[in-house]
Amino acid sequence: MPPFVDDLTREIFRLWREFYWLPEWVVISVIVAVFVFVGWAANQLVFSLLQLAVRKRDVFWRGTVGRARLKVRIAVMIAAMALAVTVSPLAPEPSLLIRQTLLFAFILTVGWMLIGASDMWAVVYLRRFNMAAEDNLVARKHITQARILQRVSALLIGIITLGLALLTISAVRQWGLSLLASAGVVGIIAGLALQPFLTNMIAGIQIATAQPIRLDDAVMVEGEFGTIEEITSTYVVVKLWDWRRLILPLSYFINTPFENWTRDTARLIGSAFLYVDYEAPVERLRAELERICRASPFWDGDVISLQVTEITDRVAQVRCLASARSAPTAFDLRCEIREKMLAFMRDECPEALPQQRQLNAAANPLS
Questions:
Q1: Which residue has the higher pLDDT, 100 or 298?
Q2: Cβ pair 124, 59 in contact under 8 A
Q3: 306 close to 320: Cβ distance less than 8 angstroms
Q4: Crossing angle, helix 59-87 and helix 92-126, to 10 degrees?
Q5: pTM for the full model?
Q6: Whose CA is closest to 153, among 187, 196, 119?
Q7: CA-CA distance, 124 to 67, in Å (whole number)?
Q8: For residue range 314-356, what is the model confidence (pLDDT) as tens digits?
């Protein structure tokens, strides 16, 4: 015990002997109240000075001081009560129990403060990026990294804090050591039970660093098209095109092949297939496709192509390609191409529409 605590304890006992007529619980209550008041006053003074010191600093320091005010106040109150119980004329056994409880709460409060600091860092860091921008690739990259690392760090801080807090309780510490020493089977079962959790946590770190997916990425998973709506510390929420949500573990995106349509850029080439007659004027169709794309707000001004990609015994398959700024825009552009090319063939180029033909039996050598 520090020397100043011993001196303070002796002084308090001397004063108590002078007021021996007071009940012990009154003396203890007065000591605790005095220490708590002194701690509260010191906390107010320190935070007033801190607010003056950071008022011209950046948002991170101002926000950290503002968010930490309540947590530091709780920590100071816990420390003040622990000191008051230590120097008070309380019996050794209840004094030890109260101090252990307060130490347990103090460690948890410190962990809470560290989690708050990491959250504040993420908030300040993400203020620099705009997810509403049309070309938000950089924003999605950094927001995905920050949010995953924020949640993983909060989880790790919580686990470490709880572990350190439990080490302060001798009964729990001894039970844990005896369990690991004498019941290896239980330890193996616990390790197997935690395997999915640890796998997803490691997968979260891999996703944050390698980034096979990011927030708002357009993906094709399990035969469904959607966008990455949320990435937590254990699972990913994919918002499907019809507003359903597909929930997948983080490890899915590390171990299972999937399509990411916006991995390096949001731009995509959309395709639309037409089935036309053999006598269809391909050049007229190609010119109409160019006219449609150049007049469309969905086209990004890059790729236009029309090619005959297949011929069957009845029709020819024509593939129309056009590029767009994003996956939703490419889908709208493909639909527009189909609609307007169909209207063009129906109204201005009917010879391109598939026609039913009958084979001449005399000309057919196989008949």
A1: 298
A2: yes
A3: yes
A4: 180
A5: 0.49
A6: 119
A7: 13
A8: 899 999 999 998 888 998 999 999 999 999 999 999 999 998 7
Q: Which amino acid is at 237?
A: V
Q: In sequence order, what are the residues at sequence separation of 6 or more whose Cβ sits closer than 8 angstroms to the Cβ of residue 285?
A: 274, 276, 306, 318, 341, 344, 345, 349, 352
Determine how many CB atoms are found less than 10 A away from the CB of residue 85: 21
Long-range CB contacts (within 8 A, 24+) of 146-151? 146/122, 147/122, 147/215, 147/231, 148/204, 148/205, 148/207, 148/208, 148/231, 148/233, 149/122, 149/205, 149/208, 150/118, 150/119, 150/121, 150/122, 151/204, 151/232, 151/233
Q: Read off the tokens for 162.
A: 């709880």
The length of the chain is: 367
**What is the identity of the amino acid at 62?**
R
Instruction: Name 304's bridge partners.
Output: 322
H helix intervals, the chain: 3-18, 24-54, 59-87, 92-126, 137-167, 170-182, 184-210, 252-255, 282-295, 327-347
pLDDT confidence of residue 8: 53
Q: In what order do the strands lie in the sheet with 268-276?
A: 268-276, 316-324, 299-311
Position of tokens 């460690």? 107
DSSP 234-267: SEEEEEETTS-EEEEETTHHHHS--EETTSS-S-
